[in-house]
Amino acid sequence: MFDSYLTGALTGLGLIVAIGAQNAYVLRQGIHRQHVGVVVAICALSDALLIVLGVAGVGALIADHPTALTVTKWLGAGYLVWFAIKSFRAALHPQGLELGGPVKRSGVIATTLALTYLNPHVYLDTVLMLGNIANQHGLDGRWWFAAGAVTASLVWFSALGFGARAVAPWVARPSVWRVLDVIIGFTMLLVATLLVLS
C-alpha cells in the first residue's frame, strides 16, 4: 500500500510542478500575500476532486466525449491570452510589492477557478493520466495512489503559495515585477499556444 501511495505522490508532483498558468498565479498571489489560503485551497481541493473522479473511472467517460475537451481548450486558450495581455500591461507600469492592496476575494476566486477548470491539461493530467495510472494498482492500491497524488498537490500548492512570502522583500522593487509580469505573460501565451496546438 505504501508503494502505491509513494508512486502516487511522486507521479502527482511530476505533473503538478511544471510551470503553468495556475502555478504562476498561485506564486503571484503568494508574493502579494492576497487571499493565499483561498487560492491554495481551491487549487488543492480541485486537484483532489479531479484525481478522485479519475480513479473512480470518469476519465474513460471523458475520453469518449472529445468535444467537451475541445470546447474547454478554446475557452481556456482565450482566457490565458487575456491574462497574458493583462500581465504585459502591468509590466508597462510596474509597481513594487503592495501588501494588503485592494483585491476583491471574488475576483481572486473567479480567476483561480478559471485557471483551474478552463485548462484542459488539468483534466488530461489528473482525470485521465493519474486515473489510468492509479487503476493499474488494483482495487485497493488505486485509492492509496490517489491519496499520494492528493497529498502531493496539497504540499505543492501550500509550499508555492505560502513559501512565496520568503521572496517578498526581494520583489519589493518595481523592476522585479516588470520582469515577473513579462515572464508570466509569456508563460500564459505559451500555455495557450500549446493548448490550441494539442
From TrEMBL:
<feature type="transmembrane region" description="Helical">
    <location>
        <begin position="68"/>
        <end position="85"/>
    </location>
</feature>
<protein>
    <submittedName>
        <fullName>L-lysine exporter family protein LysE/ArgO</fullName>
    </submittedName>
</protein>
<dbReference type="GO" id="GO:0005886">
    <property type="term" value="C:plasma membrane"/>
</dbReference>
<feature type="transmembrane region" description="Helical">
    <location>
        <begin position="143"/>
        <end position="164"/>
    </location>
</feature>
<keyword id="KW-0812">Transmembrane</keyword>
<feature type="transmembrane region" description="Helical">
    <location>
        <begin position="38"/>
        <end position="62"/>
    </location>
</feature>
<dbReference type="GO" id="GO:0015171">
    <property type="term" value="F:amino acid transmembrane transporter activity"/>
</dbReference>
<dbReference type="Pfam" id="PF01810">
    <property type="entry name" value="LysE"/>
</dbReference>
<keyword id="KW-0472">Membrane</keyword>
<feature type="transmembrane region" description="Helical">
    <location>
        <begin position="176"/>
        <end position="197"/>
    </location>
</feature>
<feature type="transmembrane region" description="Helical">
    <location>
        <begin position="6"/>
        <end position="26"/>
    </location>
</feature>
<dbReference type="InterPro" id="IPR001123">
    <property type="entry name" value="LeuE-type"/>
</dbReference>
<keyword id="KW-1003">Cell membrane</keyword>
<keyword id="KW-1133">Transmembrane helix</keyword>
<feature type="transmembrane region" description="Helical">
    <location>
        <begin position="106"/>
        <end position="123"/>
    </location>
</feature>
